[in-house]
Amino acid sequence: MNGRELVSSSARQPQTAATDANHFVLTFENNRFASELFGQFDQNLKLLEERLNIDARARGNSVTISGDVITTNQARRALDFLYERVQKGGSVEVSDVEGAIRMAQAADDQLTLPTLERKAKLSMAQISTRKKTIAARTPNQDAYMRALERAELVFGVGPAGTGKTYLAVAHAAQLLERGAVDRIILSRPAVEAGERLGFLPGDMKEKVDPYLRPLYDALYDMIPGDKVERAITAGVIEIAPLAFMRGRTLANAAVILDEAQNTTSMQMKMFLTRLGENSRMIITGDPSQVDLPRGVKSGLVEALHILKGVEGISVIRFKDTDVVRHPLVGRIVQAYDAQYAVHEESEDGDR
């Protein structure tokens, strides 16, 4: 059961300004759950205060929230969502609180007219496996996870730290557990090794492992380690270098191509045409991080242009505001994007 609102001084009055005062008390029935929700030394409430510019004071299993109408109601919706998460056995980390705040703010941003009516509970898309459940932490993550469910081919493009690769692997693991696919195929261009891949020591898996580490990390987060190893040995999870995908038809599989900005035009076309019956394909990459030699066109950038509007394909574009790593990462991405924009304007002026 969600927090029960005991006191509300303005929740039913018309809004006149964003600074209208609002004050209410939320009481949660289970003391232990409430303690987990508030966090150690009420750290989760302090984060709500900082991000939403409200006052949140806990006493026992209740929290008194004060501030302007919009932000206090955002805090209530975020707490309700997080309490449900705790009730279902989930934990509440700082990143979960950040995500709930983002989604609560986004729900208000989507309204054409401000209102004081209580809005519906936050509804975040989720990916669940036996080991872990992941809830969307930004509106674009929510759109991405929903696209993964309905589309056969999904492009997730944008800066590092937005969760596009992690969520792709999590979705593939979920499909495998459901029995919706028979195997997972992970691929990534090994640009740094170039044609020298064959000279690296070890078998093919050992040659490409350094380039696929982020995919492995996500796999081990979603599937117990011993099962991952057995699945790789049995070929249920396959590590397939992009260069070795030619000539194959990938049926009954969840196929992921990561770092796709480093594919050439021909490689991307080859990969896209591997899609077989009852398969799902997910392509992730950051068009601003192309490592190809100068003058070589990125297959990802070209594909996004050529395939625009093609039925059955979803493209989700992440922004710096979707970065879910350390907050500083988002500011770093913003700074670089701003510098690139200035550089491009300068080049245009020189022409």
Q: Could you describe the 3D structure shown?
A:
It contains 12 helices and 12 strands. The longest helix is centred in the last third of the chain and has 24 residues, at 327-350. The strands form 3 sheets. The protein has a 6-stranded parallel sheet with strand order 9-8-10-11-7-12. Strands 1-2-4-3 form a 4-stranded antiparallel sheet. 41% of the residues lie in helices and 17% in strands. The chain has 351 residues and is α/β, with parallel strands linked by helices. Residues 6-19, 111-118 and 193-197 have low confidence and may be disordered.
Q: Layout of SSEs?
A:
Elements: E1 4-8, E2 21-27, H1 31-38, H2 43-52, E3 55-59, E4 62-68, H3 69-87, H4 94-109, E5 126-128, E6 133-135, H5 139-150, E7 153-157, H6 164-178, E8 183-187, H7 204-208, H8 213-222, H9 225-234, E9 237-239, E10 253-257, H10 265-272, E11 280-285, H11 299-306, E12 313-317, H12 327-350
Parallel strand pairs: 7-11, 7-12, 8-9, 8-10, 10-11
Antiparallel strand pairs: 1-2, 2-4, 3-4, 5-6
Helix pairs in contact: 1-3, 2-4, 3-4, 5-6, 6-8, 10-11
Brief description of this entry?
Helix 1 packs across helix 3 (69-87) and helix 3 (69-87) packs across helix 4. Helix content is 41%, strand content 17%.
